[in-house]
Amino acid sequence: GNTSEDSLRILQNIPTKTAAAYMRVSNPVNSSKLSLTEKGICEDIQCKSEELVIQKQGLYLIYCHLNFYFPNCSNNPIDLKIEILVNDKVNRQTLSTCCASETCQEKTFTTLFQLHLTYLNVKDRISVTLNHPKFLNEISLPNENVLGVLRYSDEM
């Protein structure tokens, strides 16, 4: 099945007293931040159009799962950078070079997954930026591009 929808269904059925957000993301509209397009789960976290705002301090697991599509790969290396921002400052980043091997075909797909465990305070804002948002695969895998935040503990 669709792993994103399966994950959402599992998270919705867990009885929890903790903060959690699980949102589909898409290309940015007027900034470099990814847009949050569909409310999946938004418990004790304020879900805005480009960021999540923490309502309870604690230790949080932030994860971002993104799929990319390169229609014209042909051995031209492309560096993809994903940045998780907290209060508009880079808190974690991932850099991956795509389309750089001889096995590249004309059309190439790749997936990047980022996990980050960090302590967050009330009113901290979480967002994600991409250096090449045009390659985000919103056509064949739109429901698989997600940003999730889960309050792991209220202690450090």
Radius of gyration (CA) equals 16 Å
The tally of structural domains comes to: 1
Gross morphology: elongated
The averaged pLDDT comes out at 81
State the CATH architecture. Sandwich
Q: CATH class, please?
A: Mainly Beta
Largest sheet: 5 strands, antiparallel
CATH topology: Jelly Rolls
| Secondary-structure element series | HEEEEEEEEEE
Low-pLDDT stretches: none
Question: Can you count the beta strands?
Answer: 10
Distance between the termini: 36 Å
Structural class by helix and strand composition = mainly beta
Helix share bin: under 10%
| Percentage of residues in strands | over 45%
Total of helices: 1
Query: Within the largest sheet, what's the order of strands?
Result: 2-1-10-5-8
Family: Belongs to the tumor necrosis factor family.
GO molecular function: tumor necrosis factor receptor binding
InterPro entries: TNF_CS (IPR021184), TNF_dom (IPR006052), TNF_ligand_SF_member_8 (IPR053104), Tumour_necrosis_fac-like_dom (IPR008983)
Domain THD: 1-152
